[in-house]
Specification:
about 30% strand; 5-stranded mixed β-sheet; alpha+beta; 7-stranded mixed β-sheet
């Protein structure tokens, strides 16, 4: 891990990118592509500053759940970022693209927990028992790095390229949905731009969520009851522009939508 002053400098570089709406060069030019500890330290520093200003952590997002994307970035594991209450967009609402940076949309299955997950050796059965319900979601990802020119340490430092999220209004118990074979279709202005199924997310969205729960417990920051988990994209992400309306339909979960102005 690099020196603390360098962590602070790179964290500030990301904050300035946000405040000026001007993307910055890749952070890997300084920290390399293997120093995940430093990348997560940068992420934590910036999130803590937002929390000090009144934001609340309401969950976590999992990224890099596609084997193809992992291969593209040269990694063999997912990553995670924090979800803050300030990132939520209401289902069917709109957001100005002026608030976003290089936005793209992707459709995911989200989970809400009913129990804390404090065991680093958590089993799948324990995870399933701890999930209250599944719900449809669209994540708006964004990058503070120029032209989405990212490798693993760039996106980790940048809060796993998180921007905003919207969830559907049809909570479904796990026994009422086939998470592996659940089909998803996402449209932009009525035209299909993404499709997939639950198996595209590390074989199942539950596999990705189990990885996250064990990782967070081992770090001493376990997932808590009531938190929202965005488990990872079921299909390719699509670029966003002003005037676009996205609708994601999930088999067994209904739909979720968001517009941009």
């Amino acid at each position: 891990m690099i020196a603390t002053d360098k962590v602070q400098q790179l964290a500030k570089q990301l904050r300035e990118a946000i405040s000026t709406r001007t993307a910055c060069p890749p952070l890997r030019d300084v920290i390399g592509v293997e120093d995940l500890k430093t990348a997560y330290a940068i992420q934590e520093l910036n999130n803590n500053l937002l929390i000090e200003k009144g934001a609340r952590v309401v969950g976590r997002k999992i990224g890099l759940t596609s084997k193809a994307v992992q291969k593209q970035l040269g990694v063999d594991q997912p990553d995670y970022g924090a979800l803050l209450n300030t990132m939520e967009i209401l289902n069917g609402d709109t957001i100005s693209v002026s608030e976003l940076m290089q936005p793209k949309a992707e459709a995911e299955i989200a989970f809400v927990l009913k129990s804390d997950l404090t065991e680093p050796n958590l089993t799948m059965a324990e995870l399933i028992s701890a999930i209250d319900y599944a719900v449809a979601s669209i994540e708006i990802v964004g990058s503070r790095i120029e032209n989405w020119n990212i490798k693993i340490t760039d996106t980790v430092a940048d809060n796993a390229s998180a921007s905003h999220f919207v969830i559907g209004h049809r909570p479904v118990k796990l026994e009422n949905i086939d998470l592996v074979n659940c089909a998803m279709v996402m449209t932009k202005n009525g035209e299909k731009v993404s499709e997939g199924k639950g198996a595209a997310c590390l074989g199942s969205p539950l596999n990705a969520t189990l990885w996250l729960a064990k990782t967070m417990a081992a770090l001493g920051t376990p997932l808590r009851a009531g938190e929202l988990i965005l488990s990872g994209a079921l299909g390719p992400m699509a670029a966003v522009a002003a005037g676009d309306v996205f609708v994601a339909e999930f088999e067994g979960l209904g739909s979720v939508s968001v517009g941009f102005c």
